[in-house]
Every structure is written in C-alpha cells, then in structure tokens.
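Example 3.2
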Amino acid sequence: MAILPERRNLRPNQRSGGPLLQNPFVRWVDHRLPVFSTFDRFVTHYPAPRNLSYWWNFGSLATFMVLAMLGSGIFLAMNYQPDPDTAFASLQRMARDVDYGWLIRSIHMIGASMFFIVVYLHVGRSLYYGSYKRPRELLWMLGLVLFVLMMTIAFTGDVLPWDQRSYSAATVITNLFSVIPFAGNHITNWIRGGYAVGAPTLNRVFILHIVLPFVLVGFVWLHLQALHRHGSNNPTGIEPAPEAEVFFHPYYTIKDLFGLGCFLIVYAAIVFFVPGLFETPDDGIPADPLSTPTNIVPDWYFLPFYAMLRALPNTGLGAAALFGSVLVLFFLPWLDTSPVRSGRYRPLFRWFFMGLVFDIALLGWAGAQPPDGVYIWISRAATFWYFVHFLVVLPVLGKLERPYPEPGR
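Structure, written as tokens:
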C-alpha cells in the first residue's frame, strides 16, 4: 500500500498527480480551471486511514442518494401541478400515463426512505465512534444542518401529493409555529398564506421543495471541505500516522462501489417488487379538509420526533421537545466529556449507546400507535430518557468511566 507524507504537509502543488494530469490538454484546461487537480486532491490522492470499515460507506451512499433524489425530482417537477384541485390527479396521471413515470416516482418516493436509512446509520456510526469530537466539531455541526435540511425537504415532499396524510401533516406542522410568544399566530398565517392550509400553502411548499435541495448541495460541499481538512475518523479513534494511511483511490473507491452495488440491489428490489412498502392507506385518498382520519401518522423516519411532539401535555412543550431533540445534538462535542473517541474502548458507553438506540426505536414504535393510554406514557418515558442520555449520562460518564487502553498512534 502507498506510504503517504503527513497530511498537513501535503500540498496540491507538491503532487505530480496521476497520468491524467500529465496529459497536455488536461494540464492546459486545469491551468485555467482546476477541476482535474481538485478531483485529484479530493479523491485520487486524498489520504485516508487504512482501517476504515464498511460503516464508513454510508457517507458516499448518502452523496449518491442526494444525486438520485435531485435527478428524479427534476423529472417529477416537470409533470406536477401545484394546485389543490389538480395536485393529486397530476401524480396519478404521472404514474399511469407518462412513460416510465411510475418508475421515476417510485425511485423518488422510496428513495426518501432509503436516504434516511443511510443517514441514520451514518449518524449512528458517528455517535458510536466519536466522530463529533475535536477537531471535527464543525464537521459534525454541518452534518446536523444537512439533517435538518433533509427533514425539511422530506416534510415539503410529503405535503405535495395532497392526500389525506399530506393535508394533516401541513396542518400539524404549521400549527407548531403558533406557540411562538406574541407573534406565533401571525407567523403561522404568513407561512400558510392565509388562515387555513390551502392553495397558497401548497405553492409555497412546492417552491421550498424545489429550492432547498440546491441549498443542501451547498452544505454537502461545505461538509466535504470540513471532512478533508482533518480527514476521516477511524474505528480506533486514534489519528493515523503517515504509514497507516492509503490513497482514497483505488482502495476506498472500490470499497464504496461494492457497497453501492449491494445498496442498489436492495433499492431496486423494493422499487420493482414492493413499491408500496413505505406507504400507508391514507396515501391514496385525496385531501378532504372536512374529514380527518382517526390515527394518521407521518412517514416512519419522522415517527420518533412525532412521538416526542405529542408525548407532552400541551403543544408548546411538545414543540420544545421536538426542536430540542435536534438542538441538543449540536452541543454533543462538549457534552461528551470523555477524552476517548471510539466506543470500542468505552465499556459502559457501549451499553448506554445500545440503550439510546433502543430508546429511539421505542419512540418510533410509540409514534405509530394511537395517542392515548399506555402509548402516551411510553412516549413520555422514552422522551425523558433521550434527553437524560445527552444532558446527564454523557457528561457524567466521561468523568467516571474507566476506558480500555487505547493502541498507540
């Protein structure tokens, strides 16, 4: 394997580059527009730890899903009509009459769930291996901004079909802004474009769903810039010595392509054989403002947050728990007081991490149940433990835990 110099001393003008950069035409173009040298710096000769496992594949899979959702979304936008009278019918026509419209729509709809699966696994890996710790705090925070943008884009996408679930989701989410002191009702009416969810709301949601993905791409670029500043974390959490690094290409490009191939097999199997896997019965009913389903729930990736929203006695506390569940993650680099990054060397942390995973899964299950009886108390207990884990357990655990000895650099 290639032996690399220290990352901080590795400069683009000190690299001879590969055979491509020796081509006279490529050098002529690159001298005026450095696209080839940038690609060489970010991919071909980017130094990476040699011990990265397949848990590090999810970053490239998330990037692929951004491109897949953008491509399919542009096609859908060409055929969609953002009007309450025609929105539902335009999607039905797209699936039935437009050539391969059913396929593009399935790729986009199922892609949203596949995207969140990849991102949740990516975040879980970062939490377990301490990828949010110094000097990668800003990398972690940019990733959380991407997560918030993803949830916003997913919510606006859920509203566009204008079925029963879409209408209820738009009503519930816009009502959350009414809890803002003094100006809440005015902000809610401004977002809706009136006193109730209607045509102005749908138009605004459609515009946001078109614009925000390009904002997301900008933050992806910032996220990658921050990643390349200090390099990837690794399963040991120890900064690698130069001899423990390899070039990203071909070692990890091949590994990422293999992971992408496995991912596409699962993705394609769902698209072609079980396209309704992530749908609910309310998805096929046109929106009716005069009819509210008894137990309508959002998509599965929103269920933990939905459980927190309705767990507490009033809308204000529920909204505070909802937004606070994401806000607390921004302070995680400072809440976790342990000097050890990787959960591999933290015996107690491992148990609490598994407890957090179970807690989030429990919130997701409770969010899909009727909002009464024992389910409300389960949601409250799980919400309470979620905040205790980050605000109490991690700061105290870092002081009391005795980690296993870490390997040398």
